[in-house]
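// run 5 | inverse folding | seed 20
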């Protein structure tokens, strides 16, 4: 029996003012993997996620989520944007932000009730933020805000999670907590796709990786594609490498790259 991928992208091209940002991307993401998207600044990492979610227009290509267009599969997908793209001054509480994640299952008429409140508090507990439920979102640190957005994604109980730089601006404790959460989602059979910039932690955190620089350089299991040769192709040969064994394969590790816009 053929197993269909969780995300299937074919011939995807995205251009801004006639300049290609993504060019002829083919990508299949198996169900139940934790995948990193890595590449240099301007590689199109954030654009790829936004194109899959229909947030930017594509010039060409086909995108399927569990064998159907995203418009028909919205209920299966959760998205955590970059923290810097959010208006954190909006006057709302932590719990209200998380409960927004339940709106998709409620429709336009129903309002969140006791069941949704309980789910939201449970999600905050999982990310270590239950004690902050009534706090104004603007009063939180960057790492705390990131945890709240993860809780909002969790409460959606999606099948596919897209996360854009979830480790940006967080401390080491929060990063480890987020990694554990993402790995738990994978163990539960969810598919998690993460824009990531720290190459050193890719072999430790992820089991699949996409190497991207406008074009797809390589994608697949970390132990197979996260190699010195592929990373040099991705970063133009400008990065120093230190081999590190991943399983039975040798993977290349380098210093972390700056955040992609």
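// decoded
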């Amino acid at each position: 029996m053929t197993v269909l991928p969780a995300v299937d992208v074919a011939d995807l091209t995205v251009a801004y003012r006639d300049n290609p940002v993504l060019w002829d991307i083919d990508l299949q993401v198996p169900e139940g993997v934790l995948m990193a998207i890595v590449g240099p600044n301007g590689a199109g990492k954030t654009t790829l996620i936004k194109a899959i979610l229909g947030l930017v227009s594509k010039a060409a290509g086909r995108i399927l989520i569990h064998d159907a267009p995203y418009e028909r599969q919205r209920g299966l997908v959760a998205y955590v944007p970059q923290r810097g793209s959010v208006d954190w001054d909006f006057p709302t509480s932590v719990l209200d932000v998380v409960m927004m994640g339940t709106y998709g299952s409620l429709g336009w008429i129903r309002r969140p009730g006791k069941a949704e409140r309980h789910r939201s508090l449970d999600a905050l507990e999982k990310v270590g933020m239950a004690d902050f439920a009534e706090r104004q979102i603007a009063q939180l640190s960057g790492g705390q805000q990131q945890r709240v957005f993860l809780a909002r994604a969790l409460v959606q109980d999606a099948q596919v999670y897209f996360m854009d730089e979830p480790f940006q601006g967080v401390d080491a404790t929060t990063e480890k907590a987020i990694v554990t959460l993402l790995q738990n989602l994978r163990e539960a059979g969810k598919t998690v796709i993460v824009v990531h910039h720290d190459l050193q932690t890719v072999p430790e955190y992820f089991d699949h990786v996409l190497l991207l620089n406008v074009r797809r350089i390589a994608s697949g299991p970390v132990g197979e594609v996260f190699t010195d040769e592929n990373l040099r192709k991705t970063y133009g040969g400008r990065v120093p490498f230190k081999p590190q064994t991943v399983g039975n394969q040798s993977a290349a590790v380098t210093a972390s790259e700056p955040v992609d816009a």
